[in-house]
Design a protein that fits this description.
9 helices; five-stranded parallel β-sheet
Length: about 250
């Protein structure tokens, strides 16, 4: 009963912008946030652990140790280098009682490889904008969107919640400015189709490009609940409903 009353989440990479947004959102809901990163970033979390980089052989064992010690019930990784090792051992986290909404390793490999991601999405009839740089330099007449997509755990059938933010990349040397956009059904539809193409089980971030002629294309997919834009309350509600679904009675 005590464990259910005190809700703990481990968020990795807490020195990143994406993790900072996630920390803020969970703390607003009264969760105890345990941060983990390869350097000391304790200022906005309730507890902090230094862990190895995600590509270090001991990273997952370190993370399992702190998840068990803190009795956490949810793990939210935010660095791309962490997704694959965590996916490979997701059952170990679940045995400790921590939910992990990361897809199977083969799907993670498709997402982190630009070539494989492009091939899979094009087979699904989705246009892809290929570039080695994101965010890109300013381009006349081009709009950029960050869309957080999450399956809605409150619904008995497959349904999604989306938060659309437009990115202003006027200064490539600094982080884009963000502004939430309503009334973008085509943007939302493409982001949902992208999440469905990969069969993503939890929240993800899809970056889209819209040309001057209105053509939309996927630029990037990330297995984080947010990146440049904040984690909005409606997406967090859908995410926490998914978490509730997998909790023991």
């Amino acid at each position: 009963m005590i464990r259910r009353l005190i809700k703990r989440v481990v968020i990795t990479g807490v020195g990143t912008r994406a993790a900072g947004h996630a920390v803020d959102a969970f703390k607003r809901r009264g969760w105890l946030v345990v941060g983990a990163d390869k350097e000391f970033h304790p200022q906005h979390v309730n507890q902090f652990y230094i862990v190895s980089r995600g590509d270090h052989p001991g990273f997952v064992d370190e993370l399992l140790m702190l998840v068990g010690r803190e009795r956490t019930t949810l793990l939210v990784p935010t660095r791309d280098v962490e997704w694959l090792p965590i996916a490979r051992r997701s059952q170990d986290f679940r045995r400790l009682g921590a939910a992990v909404f990361i897809p199977e390793p083969v799907i993670v490999e498709d997402i982190v490889s630009t070539r494989q991601m492009t091939s899979l999405l094009r087979r699904a009839g989705i246009d892809v904008w290929e570039s080695a740089v994101f965010p890109p330099p300013p381009m006349h007449g081009v709009q950029w969107f960050e869309v957080t997509v999450c399956r809605d755990g409150r619904m008995p059938y497959e349904s999604f919640v989306c938060a659309v933010h437009e990115l202003d990349v006027g200064d490539p040397a600094s982080a884009p400015r963000v502004e939430r956009r309503k009334g973008e059904p085509e943007v939302e539809e493409l982001a949902v189709r992208t999440a469905q193409a990969f069969g993503l089980p939890g929240p993800s971030t899809v970056h889209l490009r819209r040309d001057a002629d209105g053509r939309l294309a996927v630029a990037r997919v990330a297995l984080t609940p947010c990146e440049y834009a904040p984690l909005t309350d409606d997406v967090l509600d859908a995410f926490l409903a998914l978490w509730e679904r997998v909790q023991p009675p």
